[in-house]
Amino acid sequence: MSTHLGAHPGDIAPLVLMPGDPLRARWIADTFLDDARCYTEVRGMYGFTGTWRGQRVSVQGSGMGQPSLAIYAHELFKEYDVQRVVRVGSCGAMTERVAVRDIVIASGACTDSSMNRLRFEGLDYAPVADFGLLRAAHDAALTVAGDAGVHVGLIYSSDSFYPARPELSARLVEHGVLAVEMEASALYTIAASYGRKALAVCTVSDHLVTGEETTAQEREQTFGAMVEIALTAGLSPDLSPA
Questions:
Q1: Is 108 helix (H, G, I), strand (E, B) or coil?
Q2: From CA 79, how far away is CA 73, in angstroms rounded?
Q3: Nearest to 93, CA basis, from 85, 101, 82, 81
Q4: Of all residues in the chain, what percent carry a pLDDT higher than 90?
Q5: Bridge-based pairing state of the strands 177-181 and 84-93
Q6: Of 44, 144, 151, 195, which has the maximum CB count within 10 A?
Q7: Cα–Cα dist 45/73, whole Å
């Protein structure tokens, strides 16, 4: 059993959906999975395994921020041989091109974190999604949500929920960044280090330009479209082995 997940071998499926909020993990399991069983409650970070359309799927909370996600992603890949992780989280729109409740599929993740600078000794590594998952998610999104309200592009994984220099975000927007969240850059990097597949599919929960926002309950329990997109993409028969 791993230090933080505490699951037994075989408890976790090859595909894991990873929300930041452990209560969203429980909601996903209750809403989408058949015969879901809780395999961990360590530190309140719930994990469940069940089936969706007859195929095994797990859902695991990661907590907020790259350091927390890195712990769980590392253990999933190293200790449980997970092949694909799809983050299903919330994000904040940084441009008026994106609206609240739109879906952002992250092709790559910019960051202000020092984690990759330490890993690569000062080099600027560019964390990107697995293309097969990205393509499958885009195709699924057109079926689930239609073309309107679905965006594929760069996101910004920030280490600060309340940034000391918010004006710096404008420069990112000028270079095509659509939304901000706190985990994808670490997920993409760790997946690459293990030769596994990763993707972030996020729902816009609040808007940094207009000030519009959803409630905590809405963020926990009403972002079903992104979950269906993630499940469809993650179980796509067109994906090559990791």
A1: strand
A2: 10
A3: 101
A4: 84
A5: antiparallel
A6: 151
A7: 13
66-88 residue pLDDT tens? 999 999 999 999 999 999 999 99
Short-list 240, 198, 237, 206, CA closest to 223? 206
What are the φ and ψ backbone dihedral angles of 134, each rounded to 5 degrees?
Answer: -60, -45
Q: Would you state the structure tokens that stand for residue 24, as one six-digit string?
A: 């969203």
Q: Would residue 21 show up in a list of annotated catalytic residues for this protein?
A: no
Strand pairing category for 103-111 and 150-157: parallel
Annotated catalytic residue within 11, 102, 206, 238 = 206
Q: Which structure tokens are listed for 42?
A: 């360590």
Residue-wise pLDDT for 223-232, tens only, equals 899 999 999 9
Residue 237: predicted pLDDT: 86
For 121-143, write each residue's pLDDT tens digit.
999 999 999 999 999 999 999 98
Q: 15-235 — its CATH code?
A: 3.40.50.1580
